[in-house]
Amino acid sequence: MTDIVTVYPAPESRPWADRSVSTYLKSLGLPPYSIESLLAAARIHPAREGHVLAFGPEWIHIITRGVVKETTSHGTTRLWRKGMILGDVSRVMLRKAAIDPSAQGTGPRLTFLTVGATLSITARTFGALIEKDPVLALLLAKLTNDRSQTVEAVYSISKADPVVRVARLLDYLVVQRSRRDGVERVRWNRKGVHPVPAGAVVLSGPSQADIAEVLGLGRTTVEKSIATLRSEGILNALEPGTRSNRYYEIMDLSHLRSLARSDS
Q1: Rounded CA gap, 12 and 254, in Å?
Q2: What's the rounded Cα separation, in Å, for the pair 53 and 24?
Q3: DSSP annotation of 251
Q4: In sequence order, what are the beta bridge partners of 119?
Q5: Rounded to two decimals, what is the model's pTM?
Q6: Looking at residue 151, what DSSP letter applies?
Q7: What is the pLDDT of residues 71-85, one digit of tens each?
């Protein structure tokens, strides 16, 4: 049986989405020929905040930018950042030729909580690429291992204090950018434009309700945990009237990470 790698036309995506995908793949140290073959066989999906991406169970998605809320067919909800692989990865190696009709439409539902982008490819096509290019097998292994470690560290049932669990999630989701990347130094809300403190690391996207849902905590518990992080100087205690939903200014990243790694 001859395997056919599906090649899609050039995706109708914004240039920044193409760049974010290309930059991410290069950051992993993949050789140019591996990147080219993957880009030729996959689809790039740019998305605005609130955009929903819902494909069938045969699709694999790699987040290359933004924060995404994943809801699986089993009802499990989690938050992911850049570098996460989503979907039934086992299908890549099984390379199933046909999908059970009853399973159609039961792939993960991805809701972008920020501007973002994904690289999406069918499991069968990904498997065919891997057979021709073993480097992509290493990529799949790395991404799968990263996912397992994140689930264990952030989402596994834990007896840790809720403040620690919230800290772990924030620590995972935040992406510290270099100054030349142009981290936003101002933010907007209904009250106007507000400066972002020098040195603050900004995280946007998940609401406190989202955090409560994915960690299995009560909304009030999360609100109290966020208040504790603010009182300890880890999060900026924004002035009344200037607070924005789904927005966090991390003032002491090292303290946040120290707390996230604790078992108390």
Answers
A1: 40
A2: 20
A3: S
A4: 44, 62
A5: 0.85
A6: I
A7: 988 889 999 999 999
